[in-house]
Amino acid sequence: MPKIVDHDERRREISAAITQIIVAEGFERVTMRELAARIGFAHGVIIKYFPNKQSILAAAVTQLYSGVNERLAGQVEGYRGLEGLERMFRALLPFGSEAVLRARAVIAFWNYAVHNLELSAIHRENNLMWRREFHRFLVEAREDGELGSHVDIDAAVNRIVVSSAGWQMTAVLLPEFTRAAHLEQELTTLMESLRAPEKQGMSPRKGAAQVAPSEAPID
Amino acid sequence: MPKIVDHDERRREISAAITQIIVAEGFERVTMRELAARIGFAHGVIIKYFPNKQSILAAAVTQLYSGVNERLAGQVEGYRGLEGLERMFRALLPFGSEAVLRARAVIAFWNYAVHNLELSAIHRENNLMWRREFHRFLVEAREDGELGSHVDIDAAVNRIVVSSAGWQMTAVLLPEFTRAAHLEQELTTLMESLRAPEKQGMSPRKGAAQVAPSEAPID
Questions:
Q1: Which residues in chain B touch residue A65, judged by CB atoms under 8 angstroms apart?
Q2: pLDDT tens-place string over residues A76-101
Q3: Domain count of chain B?
Q4: From CA B57, how far away is CA B50, in angstroms rounded?
Q5: B184 Cβ neighbours under 8 A, 6+ residues apart
Q6: Is B110 close to A113, i.e. CB distance below 8 A?
Q7: In chain B, what residues touch A196 (CB-CB under 8 Å)?
Q8: Which CATH number do you get for residue B67?
Q9: Which residues of B touch A109 (CB under 8 A)?
Q10: Reported pTM
């Protein structure tokens, strides 16, 4: 009987194997033939699913972002306002060695995305999704009276997402400034700036609770 | 008479021409032969000065950073404290189309630096220099009573430099969030967070002047 091939499954399998190699070693150095040899597929099979390196990179990055976003969703589910925001920012910051490896892949991806519309669109879509989430948390924080009245929500979203990108670069190229203690400081700095006490003469949200940075236990 | 060649000058000339091409078009696509042809030098001459693409990239990036740092120095000279800091941060943010082109080159550079010690060292050295400058401005701001007592200087330096990196990426891949108005917002957000009014019950720097974001005229 002829073997039935689940093409979607095989595609995922190839892309997962290649993502691992890219994360560990970068993308420039490996050729399609090497990739094929190392993940144990014939070159002819690989190019049936991925005709060129760009298409592999697109699949690998989509998979990488999916993994990150699944983890994110698990971290913020059931939380709202500043607590949700803090948990989400924490999940995006490069804590730990796996996150640093991911950051290497992300930097490679940025560089390719500059000259490639498909990659750039994947990047944009993912970034917009993060922005919507942070925006929602900030709106909730305002509703709940947690947010300093001086905070401009759109500016805060931009500051948070941009900062998260900057930390990916630093984690890879300046690890001595990206230890867990530094990332914790950045979290504290951000959360304090969002919860900052009201300025004199501005709107009277004095009653807003000054919640201490919460650290809900992770099961 | 044999022509006397100023090798340093020629090296600079080649590197300047190549920097322009890299900034405009990226680095992956061009070969050494193409570069040679386009800047009007024989391939044999180029490789005498730059034996491979990595060495060209190193020279190009050194030149790019030199240009940025010269401009920076001109912007901050004679300023101190928060005013100096704001002017320096402003000069690093990607205002204008030339800065966006530079940001493209910077992203390519990050990606190469991940796998190359020489490039990574150039990046580190430059980054450390910026950090020292921001640190100095913050120390001056504290001396002058401008800085909120809640501000941790090292954390602030990290936040500023990391953020500046993040904006380079955004300028290239998400230009719709990196317009001049967004960068102005980020400047305001940062400066407000540094000048923030004292928290209740903390150290009594109540007398600290609340200086409005200054905008010294540029001649």
A1: none
A2: 999 999 999 999 999 999 999 999 98
A3: 1
A4: 9
A5: none
A6: no
A7: 193, 196
A8: 1.10.357.10
A9: none
A10: 0.84
